[in-house]
What does this fold into?
Amino acid sequence: PEIVLALHDLTSQTEHEEALAGLSAVDLLTGLANRQAFVDRVSEIATARDAQELLVAFLDLDNFKTINDALGHDQGDLVLQTIAQRLSHAIGDDGLVSRFGGDEFVVATAQTPGTGCDKVVERLAAAFVDPVALNGKQFKITVSIGVTVTDDRSQMHPDSVLKAADIAMYEAKRRGKARVEIYDESLENRAAARLEIESDLRRAIEENEFVLVFQPIMDVVTGRAIGSEALVRWQHPERGMVPPNDFIPIAEETGLIVPLGAWVLEAAVAQTAAWNEQGLTRRALGVSVNLSGLQLGDPNLEHRTHAVLSRYGFDPAKLTLEVTESTLMTDGDGAMAILERLRDLGVRIAIDDFGTGYSSLAYLKRLPARALKIDKAFIDGLGTNAEDTALVTGIIGLASALDLELVAEGVEMETQLRELRRLGCEYSQGYFHSRPL
Ligand code: C2E
Ligand code: MG
Ligand code: MG
It folds into this structure.
C-alpha cells in the first residue's frame, strides 16, 4: 500500500515510469537487483565501447530448504537478507549482485580481459565464512557456485551465460556441494549426456544391455576368495561401457532402478550358482548385491528375493545385500522393517560405504546387519596416515563390540592389507586383489 500511495503522488508521466522501472529492477526481500537488472547489465557489458571480460557467477545455497522447514520462513528470509548484504558488500561497485528468487543469487562483473575468476570467487566465498545467527544459534551456511568467464562478445547473451553458470553450479552440487566449479564445454556435454541417458535407460532395460562384473572378496587370513560383489555395467551400443555412477542415480530418480535391480539380483545369483555347481572353489562362493533405497520401498522385494533363491537352490546365507547408511537414514523405520524380513529369509545384510554417512550408533545397534564395509576413503591412508589408521582401528573395535563382520573396501596396496591383518579385519576387497572381472 505504501508503494501505491507513493506512485499516486507522482505528477508527471515520466516520473511515474521511472519509479516503476526502478521498482521492477529490485528484489523486494533483499533489496538486490533482480533478473531484469541482470539482463540489462549483461547487455550493457556486451555492447560497451571498451572490450571487457564478463564474469557470471551462479550461487545456490546448500540445504536452504532444510533451514526454511526447520526454523521457519522468517529465519529463512533472514538468511537470504544476510547473505545478500554480505555479497553486495563483497562485490561493491565492481559488479551487480542479483537474486533470482528462492535461494539463487547471480553476480555479474565486467573486468579487464584476462583477469579470470580467482579474485571474484575469493570475495564471494568470504561472504560464507562467518555463520549466520538464527534463533540465537550460529548456523554455517554453505553454497554451491558455478562460474563462467568470457571475453567473446558474441557469447555475452544473458541466457547463454546464465545457462553456462547454471551448468557449472549443478556440477558443484553433483560433486558434493559447498564448492566452486568453472564452466567448460565438457560440462555441457555431460549435462547433455545425462539427458540422453535418461531417455536411453528405459530402452536399455527392455533390450537388456546390462552386464555384471564381479570383484572378489578375500579372506584376509587365508588369502582365498570367499565370494564376490556383483557390480552392474551398461554396455551401451554407442557410448561403450557406462559406469554405474553415471546411470544408477538416474535410474533411481526415474524408478527404473526397481526392474534393473531385479535383473541384477537374479543374474548375480544365477552366475554364482553356476560357479558353485562347477565346483570352482572348494567352498561354495557367496555373492553381494547392491540395493538402492528405492528398492527397499518395492513391496515385491522380499517375495522376489525368496523366489530367486529357491529357483537356483541358492543358500540364503551366501547372499549379501548391501545398503548404504544414507539409504537407511532417509527412510529409517520402513527400511528397517523390510531389512528385518530379508534377514528372516536368512539373507545377510551389509552396510556399504560405512563411515561416509550419518549413522547414529544407537541406530546401528538396532539394525539387522551382519557386516560393515569400511569405505575406501578410510582405507586410502591406512598405515600411512595416522588419522585414517586410528579411524579404521576404531571402526574395527566398534564392529567387534556389535558383533559385526568387516570388509575393507578399496584395498590397493599390500601395506594396507598388512595393516588390516594386524588390526583383525576379516575381509578385504580392492584392486590389490583384483579389479571387477
Ligand atoms: P560400491 O558398492 O561401494 O562398489 C565398490 C566400487 O569401488 C566399485 O565401483 C568398484 O569397482 C570400486 N573399487 C573396488 N576396489 C577398488 C580399488 O581398489 N580402488 C578404486 N579406486 N576403486 C575400487 P563401481 O563398479 O564403479 O560401482 C560404483 C557404485 O555403483 C557402487 O559402489 C554401488 O554403489 C553402485 N552400484 C554398482 N552396481 C550396482 C547395482 O547393481 N545396483 C545398485 N543399486 N548400485 C550399484
Ligand atoms: Mg557395494
Ligand atoms: Mg562401497
In short: The chain is about 50% helix and 20% strand. The longest strand covers residues 225-236. The CA atoms of residues 203 and 243 lie 17 Å apart. The two ends are 71 Å apart (CA to CA).
